[in-house]
Design a protein that fits this description.
With 183 residues, the protein is of the alpha/beta class. It contains five helices and six strands, in the order E-H-E-H-E-H-E-H-E-E-H.
Length: 183
């Protein structure tokens, strides 16, 4: 059986939005998120986080802080429900804001580009068709479709989403149940 993945946005999908977060102490999981990750694991899906972190380009946080926050999200999910992530990919870029040319530039890794998803597929050796994306913003779904139009996308409630996702979900846990029904 071919490997399949579920891509997850981080802020607003797994953990509550707290602005440009570089402090692991500010991470609070959204209710049911840890159980959803465990559910994805049990379904045999690679569980991969893809997150824009333009605060790095803006000089507000460092890449080390992004990694520490990612580690805290993973730790809380593991402690709460025994779930695990296979990888975290992040885009520290912004096309116009910031002064460091390493980060202040165009990059297809920055959602709505699909670069992070394509890189994950290459790194883990799977086809993007038949994969899933769950996010709270239109750019999450646009990134999935940029990577492969056949990725099925799910919108969780937020202030950032419109109607571009293939399906609506009440939460990440609800999305995990809907995905299970599609396998």
């Amino acid at each position: 059986m071919a490997r399949r993945a579920v891509f997850l946005d981080r802020d607003g999908t797994i953990n509550k939005q707290v602005g440009y977060c570089g402090d692991p102490a500010k991470i609070e999981l959204i209710e049911g998120a840890a159980e959803a990750v465990r559910h994805f694991n049990r379904l045999g899906l690679l569980t991969i986080v893809v997150t824009n972190q333009s605060a790095v380009a803006r000089g507000l946080i460092t890449e080390a802080q992004v990694r520490r926050v990612n580690a805290e999200v993973a730790l809380q999910v593991a402690r709460a429900a025994g779930g695990r992530f296979d990888a975290f990919y992040y885009a520290p870029f912004h096309p116009t804001e910031g002064t460091d040319p390493r980060y202040t530039r165009d990059s297809d890794w920055r959602k709505p580009g699909g670069g992070m998803l394509r890189q994950a597929a290459q790194d883990f050796g799977f086809e993007l068709a038949g994969c899933f994306m769950v996010g709270d913003a239109d750019i999450d779904h646009e990134a999935a479709k940029d990577a492969d139009p056949r990725i099925i996308t799910f919108q969780v409630p937020s202030d950032y989403g419109g109607a571009v996702a293939d399906r609506q979900a009440h939460s990440l846990l609800d999305a995990s149940r809907q995905i299970a029904a599609l396998l």
